[in-house]
Structures are given as structure tokens and as C-alpha cells.
Design brief:
It is built from 5 helices and 9 strands; from the N terminus they run H-H-H-E-E-E-E-E-H-E-E-E-E-H. The chain has 212 residues and is an alpha+beta fold. Strands 1, 2, 3, 4, 5, 6, 7, 8 and 9 form a 9-stranded antiparallel beta sheet that branches. 17% of the residues are buried. About 9% of the residues have low confidence.
């Protein structure tokens, strides 16, 4: 006599219980799928947000304020800027330095979603998106370098990016979590003037000393 399915607790059409290893494998696959989906959603959101809202080097104060709004406060300047301000956009804090009504550098920090008073690391994918948004059609070549603080206790990485047109560079520091993008226009002009001045000061016909 065949056993009654109802009496054995096995419903019609229900598969036999999965083995422990199979259940673990399925749970692992679901977890991995969830991680990938969340990562792709974050990247997609960043890609959609950055191009329309992120400023470009060389923009005027008016153009920067049209993107970011009025500055939250003033900020100490770095060469070659003569005025700088702190701006905010959802998820980011940006310091912009201006010279003659033209933006020459941006220092970008990503706000930690778990702690709005702290900053989160800008990962490599996000760095590339931010850099490409700053110059349409430009390519950036990055070179990471390991570094240690002055006390020799903290290791961190500094990645230097060079833009394909040679007119800008960027640096990301994992210790400060700041991505700095800087125009080189003024620096290049100053370097050209310095070389020109050195050429004028050097006596005509003077060359390298003998033996060099």
C-alpha cells in the first residue's frame, strides 16, 4: 500500500527538502546578487547626478553658483586663486578657488551617508566619473603611489592623474579623502615667464661649464 502524501507531510508538487550545502549556496548567490545590484545602483545614480550638477574648471562664479547655489562660507585660498568658497550638493562638499572670476581648482569630498558630519572614501570608479564630468572628451591617466605620514605610523595612497590635453591635473589622497582637480594654465604661464627671464639674464653665448 502506497503512503498517503498528506499523512507524510509532503504536499503534492513540493520538492524534497534541499540539502544544507545547497541552501547555503543559494543564500550566497542571493547575497552576492544583492551586493552587485546595490553597487550598480550607486554607480548609476552617481553617473546621472554628476554630469548635470558637477562644475567644470574654468567656469565663472555665476556659473558655479547656478550649479551649486551660493557658497556656504569663504575659504582660505591656494595658489593661484585669489578667492575661494565652500559649496554643497547632495552627497558632496566642494571647495572652489577662483582667479579673475574663473575657477582654477576644485577640492571634492563625499559626505558619509551614515554620518553627515564625516566624509567617505571616493572609490576609483567614482574618481573616474568625477574627472570625466569635469572635462568632456578628456582622458585621465592615474598613477597611485604609496605614502607614509611624517610620524611613519599611517600608510595611505596618493593617486595623481594627468589630463590628456596637459592643461589640468588631479590628486586623490586616501588619508584626507579629498579629490583635487586643478587647472595648470597659470602655472604653465609662470613657468614660461621664468624661463624667458632666465634666458634674458644669461650672458649671450654662455653655455654649460666645461666638464658637464
Amino acid at each position: 500500500m502506497m503512503p498517503n502524501r498528506a499523512s507524510t507531510g509532503e504536499a503534492k508538487g513540493t520538492p524534497q527538502a534541499l540539502s544544507s550545502s545547497t541552501r547555503v549556496a543559494l543564500l550566497g548567490a542571493r547575497w552576492y546578487k544583492g551586493v552587485v545590484i546595490r553597487f550598480l545602483v550607486r554607480v548609476l545614480c552617481l553617473m546621472l547626478f554628476v554630469p548635470c550638477c558637477h562644475a567644470r574648471l574654468g567656469e565663472t562664479i555665476q556659473q558655479i553658483e547656478a550649479r551649486y547655489g551660493k557658497p556656504l562660507k569663504g575659504m582660505a585660498t591656494e595658489y593661484p586663486a585669489t578667492v575661494a568658497g565652500v559649496y554643497a550638493k547632495p552627497g558632496f562638499q566642494i571647495v572652489v578657488g577662483f582667479r579673475q572670476n574663473k575657477s582654477y581648482y576644485e577640492k571634492i569630498q563625499k559626505i558619509d551617508p551614515q554620518n553627515p558630519k564625516a566624509f567617505a572614501d571616493i572609490n576609483a570608479e567614482e574618481q573616474v566619473i568625477l574627472l570625466k564630468a569635469n572635462c568632456s572628451g578628456c582622458n585621465w591617466q592615474g598613477q597611485p603611489t604609496a605614502a607614509v605620514d611624517v610620524l611613519g605610523t599611517t600608510q595611505f595612497t596618493v593617486t595623481t592623474y594627468n589630463r590628456s590635453d596637459g592643461l589640468a591635473k588631479a590628486v586623490y589622497d586616501t588619508r584626507t579623502k579629498v579629490l583635487t582637480i586643478r587647472l595648470l594654465e597659470v602655472e604653465k604661464a609662470d613657468e614660461a615667464k621664468r624661463k624667458q627671464q632666465e634666458g634674458r639674464e644669461r650672458p649671450e653665448g654662455a653655455g654649460e661649464p666645461e666638464g658637464f
